[in-house]
Protein backbone atom coordinates (compact mmCIF):
# COMPACT_ATOMS: atom_id res chain seq x y z
CA UNK A 1 0.00 0.00 0.00
CA UNK A 2 1.26 3.48 -0.93
CA UNK A 3 0.66 5.96 1.87
CA UNK A 4 -1.27 8.98 0.60
CA UNK A 5 -2.10 12.01 2.74
CA UNK A 6 -3.72 15.32 1.85
CA UNK A 7 -4.41 18.88 2.92
CA UNK A 8 -7.72 20.39 1.83
CA UNK A 9 -7.83 24.13 2.59
CA UNK A 10 -10.79 26.38 1.92
CA UNK A 11 -9.90 29.49 -0.15
CA UNK A 12 -11.97 31.91 1.91
CA UNK A 13 -9.43 34.38 3.26
CA UNK A 14 -5.80 34.73 4.18
CA UNK A 15 -3.78 31.47 4.37
CA UNK A 16 -3.89 30.36 8.02
CA UNK A 17 -0.88 29.12 9.99
CA UNK A 18 -3.11 26.25 11.17
CA UNK A 19 -3.41 25.11 7.55
CA UNK A 20 0.37 25.17 7.19
CA UNK A 21 0.75 23.26 10.49
CA UNK A 22 -1.56 20.45 9.34
CA UNK A 23 -0.01 20.45 5.85
CA UNK A 24 3.47 20.10 7.35
CA UNK A 25 2.55 17.04 9.41
CA UNK A 26 0.73 15.40 6.49
CA UNK A 27 3.76 16.00 4.26
CA UNK A 28 6.20 14.60 6.84
CA UNK A 29 4.04 11.53 7.48
CA UNK A 30 3.83 10.80 3.75
CA UNK A 31 7.56 11.25 3.20
CA UNK A 32 8.38 9.09 6.25
CA UNK A 33 6.58 6.22 4.47
CA UNK A 34 7.85 7.07 0.96
CA UNK A 35 4.28 8.11 0.16
CA UNK A 36 2.52 10.94 -1.62
CA UNK A 37 1.08 14.24 -0.42
CA UNK A 38 -1.94 15.76 -2.20
CA UNK A 39 -3.34 19.29 -2.12
CA UNK A 40 -7.07 19.64 -2.72
CA UNK A 41 -9.06 22.88 -2.74
CA UNK A 42 -12.38 22.78 -0.87
CA UNK A 43 -14.14 25.69 -2.60
CA UNK A 44 -17.79 24.69 -2.31
CA UNK A 45 -18.58 27.92 -0.42
CA UNK A 46 -19.54 29.89 -3.51
CA UNK A 47 -19.98 33.17 -1.64
CA UNK A 48 -16.66 33.29 0.21
CA UNK A 49 -14.29 31.27 -1.99
CA UNK A 50 -12.02 33.33 -4.25
CA UNK A 51 -9.31 32.60 -6.79
CA UNK A 52 -7.17 35.23 -5.04
CA UNK A 53 -7.34 33.30 -1.77
CA UNK A 54 -6.52 30.01 -3.51
CA UNK A 55 -3.41 31.53 -5.06
CA UNK A 56 -2.31 32.90 -1.68
CA UNK A 57 -2.64 29.40 -0.19
CA UNK A 58 -0.47 27.90 -2.92
CA UNK A 59 2.11 30.69 -2.68
CA UNK A 60 2.35 30.61 1.12
CA UNK A 61 2.72 26.83 1.38
CA UNK A 62 5.43 26.90 -1.27
CA UNK A 63 7.14 29.78 0.53
CA UNK A 64 7.35 27.49 3.57
CA UNK A 65 8.93 24.76 1.45
CA UNK A 66 5.89 22.46 1.47
CA UNK A 67 5.53 20.79 -1.92
CA UNK A 68 2.72 18.48 -3.05
CA UNK A 69 2.71 15.62 -5.55
CA UNK A 70 -0.78 16.25 -6.92
CA UNK A 71 -2.95 19.34 -6.89
CA UNK A 72 -4.91 21.90 -8.91
CA UNK A 73 -1.76 23.56 -10.24
CA UNK A 74 0.38 20.48 -10.88
CA UNK A 75 -2.34 18.04 -11.95
CA UNK A 76 -2.38 14.33 -11.27
CA UNK A 77 -4.36 11.15 -12.04
CA UNK A 78 -7.17 11.85 -9.54
CA UNK A 79 -8.36 15.31 -10.63
CA UNK A 80 -10.04 17.65 -10.72
CA UNK A 81 -8.52 18.86 -7.45
CA UNK A 82 -11.04 21.66 -6.88
CA UNK A 83 -14.32 20.56 -5.36
CA UNK A 84 -16.23 23.16 -7.38
CA UNK A 85 -15.26 21.15 -10.49
CA UNK A 86 -16.51 17.82 -9.07
CA UNK A 87 -20.22 18.62 -8.68
CA UNK A 88 -21.53 15.72 -10.76
CA UNK A 89 -19.43 13.26 -8.77
CA UNK A 90 -21.04 14.38 -5.49
CA UNK A 91 -24.55 14.47 -6.96
CA UNK A 92 -24.14 10.91 -8.24
CA UNK A 93 -22.96 9.65 -4.84
CA UNK A 94 -25.81 11.46 -3.08
CA UNK A 95 -28.28 9.71 -5.44
CA UNK A 96 -26.68 6.37 -4.59
CA UNK A 97 -27.21 7.00 -0.88
CA UNK A 98 -30.86 7.98 -1.42
CA UNK A 99 -31.54 4.89 -3.55
CA UNK A 100 -29.93 2.66 -0.92
CA UNK A 101 -32.08 4.22 1.81
CA UNK A 102 -29.13 5.86 3.60
CA UNK A 103 -30.13 9.46 2.81
CA UNK A 104 -33.31 11.43 2.17
CA UNK A 105 -34.52 14.67 0.62
CA UNK A 106 -35.48 17.15 3.33
CA UNK A 107 -37.96 19.91 2.43
CA UNK A 108 -38.09 21.52 5.87
CA UNK A 109 -37.88 25.33 5.85
CA UNK A 110 -35.40 27.23 8.02
CA UNK A 111 -38.29 28.49 10.15
CA UNK A 112 -39.49 24.95 10.76
CA UNK A 113 -35.98 23.84 11.67
CA UNK A 114 -35.62 26.71 14.17
CA UNK A 115 -38.95 25.77 15.75
CA UNK A 116 -37.93 22.12 16.03
CA UNK A 117 -34.66 23.04 17.74
CA UNK A 118 -36.37 25.44 20.13
CA UNK A 119 -38.90 22.77 21.09
CA UNK A 120 -36.14 20.25 21.79
CA UNK A 121 -34.20 22.82 23.77
CA UNK A 122 -37.23 23.67 25.87
CA UNK A 123 -37.76 19.97 26.56
CA UNK A 124 -34.14 19.58 27.67
CA UNK A 125 -33.32 17.24 24.78
CA UNK A 126 -30.25 16.99 22.56
CA UNK A 127 -30.44 19.57 19.78
CA UNK A 128 -29.36 17.06 17.11
CA UNK A 129 -32.20 16.53 14.66
CA UNK A 130 -32.85 12.96 13.54
CA UNK A 131 -34.67 11.72 10.42
CA UNK A 132 -37.79 11.04 12.51
CA UNK A 133 -37.80 14.63 13.77
CA UNK A 134 -37.48 15.99 10.25
CA UNK A 135 -40.07 13.73 8.63
CA UNK A 136 -43.09 15.45 7.11
CA UNK A 137 -46.52 13.83 6.71
CA UNK A 138 -46.53 11.80 3.51
CA UNK A 139 -49.00 14.09 1.73
CA UNK A 140 -47.07 17.22 2.67
CA UNK A 141 -43.78 15.67 1.56
CA UNK A 142 -45.35 14.72 -1.77
CA UNK A 143 -46.84 18.21 -2.21
CA UNK A 144 -43.56 20.01 -1.58
CA UNK A 145 -41.75 17.60 -3.88
CA UNK A 146 -44.39 18.07 -6.58
CA UNK A 147 -44.24 21.86 -6.30
CA UNK A 148 -40.45 21.89 -6.51
CA UNK A 149 -39.70 23.33 -3.08
CA UNK A 150 -36.02 23.92 -2.26
CA UNK A 151 -34.55 20.95 -0.46
CA UNK A 152 -31.35 19.48 0.88
CA UNK A 153 -30.13 15.89 1.02
CA UNK A 154 -29.47 14.61 4.53
CA UNK A 155 -27.87 11.40 5.72
CA UNK A 156 -29.65 8.97 8.03
CA UNK A 157 -28.00 8.50 11.43
CA UNK A 158 -28.82 6.16 14.33
CA UNK A 159 -31.09 7.57 17.03
CA UNK A 160 -29.27 5.90 19.92
CA UNK A 161 -26.20 3.94 20.89
CA UNK A 162 -22.56 4.92 20.46
CA UNK A 163 -20.13 5.13 17.58
CA UNK A 164 -16.57 3.96 18.19
CA UNK A 165 -13.83 5.60 16.12
CA UNK A 166 -10.17 4.55 16.22
CA UNK A 167 -7.60 7.32 16.25
CA UNK A 168 -3.86 6.92 15.65
CA UNK A 169 -2.98 9.16 18.62
CA UNK A 170 -6.00 8.89 20.89
CA UNK A 171 -6.94 5.26 20.47
CA UNK A 172 -10.63 4.47 20.99
CA UNK A 173 -12.99 7.47 20.75
CA UNK A 174 -16.63 6.96 21.64
CA UNK A 175 -19.33 9.42 20.52
CA UNK A 176 -23.00 9.19 21.50
CA UNK A 177 -25.19 8.98 18.39
CA UNK A 178 -27.79 11.12 20.18
CA UNK A 179 -25.43 14.08 19.68
CA UNK A 180 -25.09 13.54 15.92
CA UNK A 181 -27.64 15.18 13.65
CA UNK A 182 -28.94 14.07 10.27
CA UNK A 183 -26.12 15.85 8.49
CA UNK A 184 -26.80 17.79 5.29
CA UNK A 185 -24.83 16.21 2.44
CA UNK A 186 -26.03 18.31 -0.50
CA UNK A 187 -27.12 21.92 -0.01
CA UNK A 188 -30.17 23.39 -1.73
CA UNK A 189 -27.91 24.90 -4.41
CA UNK A 190 -26.66 21.42 -5.28
CA UNK A 191 -23.22 21.96 -3.77
CA UNK A 192 -21.93 19.34 -1.32
CA UNK A 193 -21.13 20.02 2.31
CA UNK A 194 -17.66 19.25 3.61
CA UNK A 195 -18.82 15.91 4.98
CA UNK A 196 -19.92 14.33 1.70
CA UNK A 197 -17.19 15.90 -0.43
CA UNK A 198 -14.47 14.99 2.07
CA UNK A 199 -15.43 11.31 2.20
CA UNK A 200 -16.01 10.92 -1.56
CA UNK A 201 -12.80 12.73 -2.50
CA UNK A 202 -10.64 10.92 0.03
CA UNK A 203 -11.88 7.57 -1.29
CA UNK A 204 -11.59 8.41 -4.98
CA UNK A 205 -8.15 9.96 -4.47
CA UNK A 206 -6.88 6.92 -2.58
CA UNK A 207 -6.15 8.74 0.68
CA UNK A 208 -4.92 6.23 3.25
CA UNK A 209 -4.32 8.45 6.29
CA UNK A 210 -6.17 11.61 7.33
CA UNK A 211 -4.25 13.88 9.69
CA UNK A 212 -6.50 16.78 10.64
CA UNK A 213 -7.31 19.10 13.55
CA UNK A 214 -9.05 17.78 16.65
CA UNK A 215 -12.05 20.03 15.92
CA UNK A 216 -13.13 17.31 13.45
CA UNK A 217 -13.45 14.59 16.11
CA UNK A 218 -17.20 15.15 16.47
CA UNK A 219 -17.59 14.75 12.70
CA UNK A 220 -15.74 11.43 12.62
CA UNK A 221 -18.87 9.32 13.31
CA UNK A 222 -20.66 10.85 10.31
CA UNK A 223 -17.66 10.17 8.09
CA UNK A 224 -17.27 6.62 9.38
CA UNK A 225 -20.97 5.99 8.75
CA UNK A 226 -20.70 7.29 5.19
CA UNK A 227 -17.80 4.93 4.52
CA UNK A 228 -19.96 2.07 5.81
CA UNK A 229 -22.89 3.17 3.63
CA UNK A 230 -20.71 3.22 0.51
CA UNK A 231 -18.97 -0.04 1.43
CA UNK A 232 -15.54 1.57 1.38
CA UNK A 233 -12.53 1.11 3.63
CA UNK A 234 -12.00 4.16 5.81
CA UNK A 235 -8.58 5.88 5.96
CA UNK A 236 -6.83 5.83 9.31
CA UNK A 237 -7.68 8.94 11.29
CA UNK A 238 -5.29 11.09 13.30
CA UNK A 239 -6.68 14.16 15.04
CA UNK A 240 -3.92 16.65 15.74
CA UNK A 241 -4.01 18.99 18.76
CA UNK A 242 -5.17 22.54 18.00
CA UNK A 243 -2.74 25.44 18.06
CA UNK A 244 -3.32 27.63 21.12
CA UNK A 245 -2.76 31.25 22.15
CA UNK A 246 -0.53 31.75 25.20
CA UNK A 247 -3.72 31.92 27.32
CA UNK A 248 -4.55 28.39 26.02
CA UNK A 249 -7.54 29.59 23.98
CA UNK A 250 -7.83 28.39 20.38
CA UNK A 251 -5.50 30.31 18.07
CA UNK A 252 -7.62 32.99 16.42
CA UNK A 253 -7.06 36.15 14.45
CA UNK A 254 -8.76 38.18 17.19
CA UNK A 255 -5.84 37.47 19.54
CA UNK A 256 -2.88 36.64 17.30
CA UNK A 257 -1.89 37.25 13.69
CA UNK A 258 -2.85 33.97 12.02
CA UNK A 259 -2.07 34.65 8.37
CA UNK A 260 1.11 33.22 6.90
CA UNK A 261 1.22 36.43 4.85
CA UNK A 262 1.64 38.42 8.07
CA UNK A 263 4.76 36.50 9.11
CA UNK A 264 6.13 36.75 5.60
CA UNK A 265 5.52 40.54 5.55
CA UNK A 266 7.02 40.95 9.04
CA UNK A 267 10.34 39.53 7.84
CA UNK A 268 10.31 36.03 9.30
CA UNK A 269 12.34 33.49 7.37
CA UNK A 270 10.32 30.63 5.89
CA UNK A 271 12.65 27.97 7.30
CA UNK A 272 12.23 29.45 10.79
CA UNK A 273 8.42 29.44 10.52
CA UNK A 274 8.40 25.86 9.23
CA UNK A 275 10.77 24.80 12.00
CA UNK A 276 8.56 26.48 14.60
CA UNK A 277 5.38 24.83 13.26
CA UNK A 278 7.21 21.50 13.40
CA UNK A 279 7.74 22.05 17.13
CA UNK A 280 4.00 22.45 17.68
CA UNK A 281 3.29 19.30 19.68
CA UNK A 282 6.20 17.34 18.19
CA UNK A 283 9.89 17.05 18.97
CA UNK A 284 13.03 15.63 17.41
CA UNK A 285 14.39 12.44 19.03
CA UNK A 286 17.31 14.44 20.47
CA UNK A 287 14.92 17.24 21.59
CA UNK A 288 16.83 19.98 19.74
CA UNK A 289 14.77 23.06 18.93
CA UNK A 290 16.35 24.07 15.63
CA UNK A 291 16.03 21.69 12.69
CA UNK A 292 15.39 21.82 8.96
CA UNK A 293 12.38 20.47 7.09
CA UNK A 294 14.59 17.72 5.63
CA UNK A 295 15.71 16.73 9.13
CA UNK A 296 12.12 16.70 10.38
CA UNK A 297 11.05 14.43 7.51
CA UNK A 298 14.01 12.10 8.11
CA UNK A 299 13.21 11.68 11.83
CA UNK A 300 9.44 12.01 11.76
CA UNK A 301 7.32 9.72 13.92
CA UNK A 302 3.65 10.53 14.44
CA UNK A 303 3.72 8.85 17.84
CA UNK A 304 5.98 11.65 19.10
CA UNK A 305 3.07 14.10 18.80
CA UNK A 306 1.90 15.32 22.20
CA UNK A 307 -1.84 15.83 22.70
CA UNK A 308 -1.33 18.83 24.96
CA UNK A 309 -2.42 21.95 23.09
CA UNK A 310 0.75 23.45 21.55
CA UNK A 311 1.12 27.16 22.32
CA UNK A 312 1.89 29.46 19.40
CA UNK A 313 4.19 31.90 21.16
CA UNK A 314 5.20 34.85 18.98
CA UNK A 315 8.18 35.68 21.20
CA UNK A 316 9.52 32.13 20.82
CA UNK A 317 9.10 32.24 17.04
CA UNK A 318 10.87 35.60 16.92
CA UNK A 319 13.76 34.21 18.98
CA UNK A 320 14.06 31.21 16.65
CA UNK A 321 13.95 33.47 13.60
CA UNK A 322 16.81 35.55 15.01
CA UNK A 323 18.78 32.36 15.53
CA UNK A 324 18.33 31.46 11.85
CA UNK A 325 19.40 34.92 10.71
CA UNK A 326 22.57 34.85 12.82
CA UNK A 327 23.53 31.20 12.30
CA UNK A 328 22.30 30.34 8.81
CA UNK A 329 22.72 33.54 6.76
CA UNK A 330 26.08 34.91 5.69
CA UNK A 331 26.20 38.45 4.29
CA UNK A 332 25.27 37.33 0.78
CA UNK A 333 22.35 35.19 1.98
CA UNK A 334 21.21 38.00 4.29
CA UNK A 335 21.19 40.46 1.40
CA UNK A 336 19.23 37.99 -0.73
CA UNK A 337 16.71 37.47 2.08
CA UNK A 338 16.22 41.25 2.30
CA UNK A 339 15.63 41.43 -1.45
CA UNK A 340 13.08 38.62 -1.33
CA UNK A 341 11.38 40.04 1.77
CA UNK A 342 10.50 43.61 0.85
CA UNK A 343 12.92 44.94 -1.74
CA UNK A 344 11.72 42.65 -4.49
CA UNK A 345 10.59 44.18 -7.75
CA UNK A 346 6.94 43.16 -7.50
CA UNK A 347 6.41 44.74 -4.08
CA UNK A 348 8.38 47.90 -4.85
CA UNK A 349 6.37 48.39 -8.04
CA UNK A 350 3.19 48.45 -5.94
CA UNK A 351 4.68 51.17 -3.75
CA UNK A 352 6.23 53.41 -6.44
CA UNK A 353 2.93 55.08 -7.51
CA UNK A 354 2.36 56.08 -3.87
CA UNK A 355 5.82 57.58 -3.44
CA UNK A 356 7.01 59.11 -6.73
CA UNK A 357 4.48 61.99 -6.91
CA UNK A 358 5.44 63.07 -3.37
CA UNK A 359 9.27 63.18 -3.48
CA UNK A 360 11.77 65.76 -4.70
CA UNK A 361 14.95 63.81 -3.90
CA UNK A 362 15.59 60.10 -3.47
CA UNK A 363 16.39 60.79 0.17
CA UNK A 364 12.69 61.60 0.69
CA UNK A 365 11.68 58.02 -0.07
CA UNK A 366 12.67 56.33 3.20
CA UNK A 367 10.83 58.67 5.60
CA UNK A 368 7.82 58.74 3.28
CA UNK A 369 7.57 55.00 2.58
CA UNK A 370 9.27 53.46 5.59
CA UNK A 371 5.99 51.96 6.81
CA UNK A 372 5.95 49.65 3.79
CA UNK A 373 9.30 48.16 4.86
CA UNK A 374 8.75 47.73 8.59
CA UNK A 375 6.76 45.68 11.06
CA UNK A 376 4.66 47.38 13.71
CA UNK A 377 5.04 51.20 13.79
CA UNK A 378 7.00 52.83 16.62
CA UNK A 379 4.11 54.70 18.21
CA UNK A 380 2.94 55.51 21.73
CA UNK A 381 0.00 57.32 23.35
CA UNK A 382 1.41 60.75 22.53
CA UNK A 383 1.34 59.88 18.82
CA UNK A 384 -2.43 60.41 18.93
CA UNK A 385 -2.39 63.76 20.82
CA UNK A 386 -3.46 65.75 17.78
CA UNK A 387 -6.48 63.50 17.11
CA UNK A 388 -9.65 65.35 18.15
CA UNK A 389 -11.46 62.39 19.70
CA UNK A 390 -12.11 61.32 23.28
CA UNK A 391 -10.02 58.29 24.29
CA UNK A 392 -13.02 55.91 24.37
CA UNK A 393 -14.25 57.09 20.96
CA UNK A 394 -10.74 56.67 19.57
CA UNK A 395 -10.50 53.10 20.87
CA UNK A 396 -13.99 52.35 19.60
CA UNK A 397 -13.17 53.69 16.13
CA UNK A 398 -10.07 51.51 15.82
CA UNK A 399 -11.79 48.44 17.28
CA UNK A 400 -14.81 48.79 15.00
CA UNK A 401 -12.48 49.06 12.01
CA UNK A 402 -10.73 45.83 13.00
CA UNK A 403 -14.09 44.08 13.26
CA UNK A 404 -15.31 45.46 9.92
CA UNK A 405 -12.14 44.28 8.19
CA UNK A 406 -12.10 40.75 9.69
CA UNK A 407 -14.80 39.11 7.53
CA UNK A 408 -13.87 40.77 4.21
CA UNK A 409 -13.64 38.00 1.58
CA UNK A 410 -11.59 40.11 -0.82
CA UNK A 411 -8.97 42.64 0.21
CA UNK A 412 -8.79 45.61 -2.16
CA UNK A 413 -9.04 49.38 -1.90
CA UNK A 414 -12.66 49.68 -3.02
CA UNK A 415 -13.87 47.14 -0.44
CA UNK A 416 -11.86 48.85 2.32
CA UNK A 417 -13.16 52.26 1.33
CA UNK A 418 -16.76 51.04 1.56
CA UNK A 419 -16.18 49.83 5.13
CA UNK A 420 -14.41 53.06 6.13
CA UNK A 421 -17.22 55.21 4.69
CA UNK A 422 -19.84 53.16 6.53
CA UNK A 423 -18.04 53.59 9.86
CA UNK A 424 -17.32 57.29 9.27
CA UNK A 425 -21.05 57.76 8.79
CA UNK A 426 -21.80 55.83 11.98
CA UNK A 427 -19.39 58.04 13.97
CA UNK A 428 -20.65 61.20 12.29
CA UNK A 429 -17.15 62.09 11.12
CA UNK A 430 -15.80 63.47 7.88
CA UNK A 431 -13.48 61.04 6.11
CA UNK A 432 -10.45 63.21 6.91
CA UNK A 433 -11.23 63.19 10.63
CA UNK A 434 -12.07 59.48 10.67
CA UNK A 435 -8.81 58.57 8.94
CA UNK A 436 -6.60 60.76 11.14
CA UNK A 437 -6.01 58.07 13.82
CA UNK A 438 -5.94 55.35 11.14
CA UNK A 439 -3.03 57.16 9.46
CA UNK A 440 -1.07 57.01 12.70
CA UNK A 441 -1.96 53.38 13.42
CA UNK A 442 -1.02 52.16 9.93
CA UNK A 443 1.91 54.40 8.95
CA UNK A 444 3.19 55.63 12.32
CA UNK A 445 2.75 59.20 11.10
CA UNK A 446 -0.11 61.74 10.92
CA UNK A 447 0.63 62.24 7.24
CA UNK A 448 2.12 59.95 4.64
CA UNK A 449 1.17 58.20 1.43
CA UNK A 450 -2.52 57.34 1.01
CA UNK A 451 -3.55 55.27 4.01
CA UNK A 452 -6.23 53.49 1.96
CA UNK A 453 -3.64 52.41 -0.60
CA UNK A 454 -1.23 51.50 2.20
CA UNK A 455 -3.76 49.15 3.81
CA UNK A 456 -4.51 47.54 0.45
CA UNK A 457 -0.79 46.96 -0.20
CA UNK A 458 0.12 45.83 3.32
CA UNK A 459 -2.63 43.18 3.33
CA UNK A 460 -5.37 42.21 5.75
CA UNK A 461 -3.47 40.60 8.59
CA UNK A 462 -0.72 43.25 8.71
CA UNK A 463 -3.32 46.01 8.61
CA UNK A 464 -5.35 44.48 11.42
CA UNK A 465 -2.19 43.79 13.43
CA UNK A 466 -1.22 47.47 13.22
CA UNK A 467 -4.71 48.56 14.25
CA UNK A 468 -4.62 46.16 17.22
CA UNK A 469 -1.13 47.44 18.08
CA UNK A 470 -2.48 50.99 18.17
CA UNK A 471 -5.32 49.89 20.45
CA UNK A 472 -2.72 48.30 22.71
CA UNK A 473 -0.50 51.40 22.99
CA UNK A 474 -3.62 53.43 23.84
CA UNK A 475 -4.20 51.20 26.85
CA UNK A 476 -6.36 48.52 25.26
CA UNK A 477 -10.08 47.88 25.55
CA UNK A 478 -11.32 46.93 29.02
CA UNK A 479 -13.92 44.20 29.55
CA UNK A 480 -16.60 46.79 30.30
CA UNK A 481 -15.71 48.76 27.20
CA UNK A 482 -15.67 45.58 25.10
CA UNK A 483 -19.25 44.79 26.16
CA UNK A 484 -20.41 48.30 25.27
CA UNK A 485 -18.53 48.26 21.97
CA UNK A 486 -19.89 44.85 20.96
CA UNK A 487 -23.47 45.89 21.76
CA UNK A 488 -23.16 49.03 19.66
CA UNK A 489 -21.35 47.20 16.87
CA UNK A 490 -24.10 44.58 16.61
CA UNK A 491 -26.62 47.35 16.10
CA UNK A 492 -24.70 48.79 13.13
Can you walk me through this structure?
With 492 residues, this protein is mainly alpha-helical. It is 47% helix and 8% strand. The chain is built from 21 helices and 9 strands. The strands form 4 sheets. It has a 3-stranded antiparallel sheet. A two-stranded parallel ribbon has the order 1-2. Helix 1 links the parallel strand 1 and strand 2. The radius of gyration is 25 Å and the shape is globular. The chain starts with a strand and ends with a helix. The model has no long low-confidence stretch (mean pLDDT 94).
Key terms:
492 residues; mainly alpha; globular
Task: Give the structure's gist in a few sentences.
This protein has 492 residues and is mainly alpha-helical. The chain is 47% helix and 8% strand. The protein has 21 helices and nine strands.
Number of strands: 9
Strand order of the largest sheet: 3-4-7
Query: What is the H/E order?
Result: EHEHHEHHHEEEEHEHEHHHHHHHHHHHHH
Residues in helices, as a percent range: 40-55%
Topology of this structure?
Layout: E1 4-7, H1 17-32, E2 36-39, H2 51-63, H3 87-99, E3 103-106, H4 110-122, H5 131-134, H6 138-146, E4 152-155, E5 162-167, E6 171-176, E7 184-186, H7 194-204, E8 209-213, H8 220-230, E9 236-240, H9 260-265, H10 270-278, H11 293-299, H12 314-328, H13 331-341, H14 345-355, H15 365-369, H16 391-405, H17 413-427, H18 431-443, H19 451-458, H20 460-473, H21 479-490
Parallel strand pairs: 1-2, 8-9
Antiparallel strand pairs: 3-4, 4-7, 5-6
Amino acid sequence: MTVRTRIAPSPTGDPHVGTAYIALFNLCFARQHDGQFILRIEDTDRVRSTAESEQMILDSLRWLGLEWDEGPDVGGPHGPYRQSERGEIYADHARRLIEAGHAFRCYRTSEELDALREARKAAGMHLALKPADLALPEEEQARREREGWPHVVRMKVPASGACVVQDMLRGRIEVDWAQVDAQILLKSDGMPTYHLANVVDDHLMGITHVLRGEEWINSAPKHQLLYEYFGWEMPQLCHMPLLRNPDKSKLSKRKNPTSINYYRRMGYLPQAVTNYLGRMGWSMPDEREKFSLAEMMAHFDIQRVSLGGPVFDLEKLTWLNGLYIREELDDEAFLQALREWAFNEQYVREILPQVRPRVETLADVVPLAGHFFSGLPQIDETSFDAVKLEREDLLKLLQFLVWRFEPLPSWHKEALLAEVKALAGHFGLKMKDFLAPVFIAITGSPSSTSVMDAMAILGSDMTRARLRHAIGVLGGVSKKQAKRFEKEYREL
